[in-house]
User: Fold this.
Amino acid sequence: GSYDGTVTLSDKTPPNSYRLTVEGQGKPGFVKGNATITLRPDGANTIVDVGGTVEAGGMVARLGQRLIGNVSKMMQDKFFSCLQSKLT
Assistant:
């Protein structure tokens, strides 16, 4: 489905961490989520730790509750693949 929403960055501690808050509303229902992203050095590399929660309501929650974890993992993988392609 399509959603209108907002994404907010907060609790910024550059270059170590930040919080990402997402809220969306659409015909299929609503989605709210929080993620904490922490960056930590590991030699010449950077380790990215991501932890979060999601809350969904409406039809999307009834039909897609089991898919939310898989979809969020897929979206993270796409994001980091795109980021990596831009850095190399």
Notes: The chain has a mean pLDDT of 87.
